[in-house]
């Protein structure tokens, strides 16, 4: 590091045109030392155990089964007409043992008697189906 003490001729009234960087370097070194000392203190946080990453195979979701009951009480299992509730019971028994078990969606005509819908629900319960839902038309927002 160098320092300007004056001119060669001894004239003290001359203006210095050099920038003195010694104070700047001193301040930067002090800041660097402060950051080096305090950074390990700041990094000491609470001890926690982070979760480890695991890859899991996706379980395929079974397809939902649609049961349609028209206004005459005819039952359709995924577009196939069932002769009666016993035929429906036989088809549902096969679906009930699958893992994961599919959901049953019952679609009933607006003019269907409750008796026909009740028979379908009772048959699904007898077959051991866990999830049964009704599909309805959402109301108009008008």
TrEMBL record:
Keywords, A to Z, come to: Cell membrane, Membrane, Protein transport, Transmembrane, Transmembrane helix, Transport
The transmembrane residues are: 24-43
InterPro entries named among the record's database cross-references? ExbD
Q: Does the keyword Protein transport apply?
A: yes
Q: What is its main location?
A: membrane
Q: Where in the cell is it found?
A: Cell membrane
The organism's superkingdom is given as Bacteria
Q: How does it sit in the membrane?
A: Single-pass membrane protein; Single-pass type II membrane protein
Answer yes or no on keyword Transmembrane helix.
Answer: yes
PANTHER family attached to this UniProt entry: EXBD MEMBRANE COMPONENT OF PMF-DRIVEN MACROMOLECULE IMPORT SYSTEM (PTHR30558), TOL-PAL SYSTEM PROTEIN TOLR (PTHR30558:SF7)
Q: Which family does it belong to?
A: Belongs to the ExbD/TolR family.
Q: What is the official name of this protein in its record? A: Biopolymer transporter ExbD
Q: Which organism is it from?
A: Janthinobacterium fluminis
């Amino acid at each position: 590091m160098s320092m300007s003490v004056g001119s060669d001729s001894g004239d003290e009234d001359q203006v210095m045109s050099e920038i003195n960087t010694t104070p700047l370097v001193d301040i930067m070194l002090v800041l660097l030392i402060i950051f080096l000392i305090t950074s390990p203190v700041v990094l000491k946080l609470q001890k926690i155990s982070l979760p480890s990453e695991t890859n899991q195979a996706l379980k395929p979701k079974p397809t939902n089964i649609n049961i349609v009951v028209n206004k005459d009480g005819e039952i359709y299992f995924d577009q196939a007409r069932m002769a009666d509730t016993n035929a429906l019971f036989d088809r549902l028994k096969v679906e009930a043992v699958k893992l994961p078990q599919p959901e049953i969606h019952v679609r009933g005509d607006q003019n269907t008697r409750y008796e026909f819908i009740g028979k379908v629900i009772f048959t699904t319960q007898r077959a051991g189906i866990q999830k049964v839902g009704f599909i309805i038309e959402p109301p108009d927002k008008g």
